[in-house]
Amino acid sequence: MMNILQVSLADIEGGAEKIAWTLHHSYCARGHDSWLAVGRKKTNAPNILRIPQETYRSVWERFWETFSRVWYPHRNRHRMFARLYWVCFELGSGHLRDGLHGLENFNFPATHHVLELPPRTPEILHCHNLHGNYFDLRELPFLSHRAPMVLTLHDAWMVSGHCAHSFDCERWKIGCGNCPDLKSYPGLVRDATAENWQRKRNIYAHSHLYIATPCQWLLEKVQQSILAQSTVMTRVIPYGINLKQFYPGDKRSVREKLGLPINADILLFAANGIRHNVFKDFRTLRAAILRVAEHVQQRPIIFVALGESAPREQIGQVQMMFVPFRYDAEVVAQHYQAADMYVHAARADTFPNTVLEALACGTPVIATAVGGIPEQIRHAKTGLLVPPGEPNALSEAILSMLQDNVRLNEMGKLAADDARQRFDMVRMTDNYLDWYQEISESRRANAG
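Now predict its structure.
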């Protein structure tokens, strides 16, 4: 049995947080002492530890941090609210001056004490996404020498001067600077990307990290980046999902539960804030749906966009229906089970959980071939891959699947089988625990 501390932005949030949450509960179920330290705690689940930044801040900083929490829920409603939140948060973290100059915010003093949060000293420190305004990257050398530090990358922020995904830009290889898109998440107000890149490089030079990625595509980026100098060992460990929650279901019954018609073709896309998510490509997706509507005259089509509230739209025979994001895994799985296919249009992505969940539910996937997605889908077997940003290619792929029910059913069966073999959370948990053991034994041998 091991003492394992994971560090993540939140206990429940997006895809990266879901992986940390899944691993934490899997470790607990196997009898390990597992804790999850988070910047934002949203549940009362046991062994979830909030990283208490306010304990190490001044009264002045705590005052402004309180105001930032007031504006946080409203930051996406209006640009003024977003600016008020940003200013209050930067004042609360003592970073406003540096923030105005474009430096990334590392002023989170509780990071130094994160190993003290659990009641017992962790044998493994496993960190996930370290951006999101909760972690001081400058503490990596200190922490990685105190305990073996496994770092799972869920995007490419660690290798860049600010962005989580660089799209076609490759300046992250040579030092950033002259950034083509300062607004790309996490955004900056001024171009200090070269200084941010150099600061990260200096931090990594004194760190010892065990790097895991969910796909070969991201690992290859790591190997070409400033992170390579600090890497002791690497692993590609694909994400795993709970196959007891995500599995093929009876379409008729789940459609009745969700209030969806039996005699329609149903397409699904799931993402937080679908229409305005910068990494997803709702514009291309909508253009593809318009083209599909022009060619379909007989059978009605319903496009379900899971992840945002908006009025329904009717485009010819296609109805676009928006459904607010759901945290309930059973309800999410029912949407996959009800769909004839899952359509994932992205400008950039790493290894989306939504694709895996759809495959596990026996729903073929049509997706843009970006990031690690080609490692998830077996082209022409469990789904179809199309070039990014090309609505014609996407609409043609959708129409070809809609017109061949036999092929659609065969792909669905292969998708469920493939997910069981490659993307089970049990396999992911085994892979990490085996690696933890290998790391511990290697360090003991070197110490001896």
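The domain at 3-57+93-240+426-442 is CATH 3.40.50.2000 (Rossmann fold).
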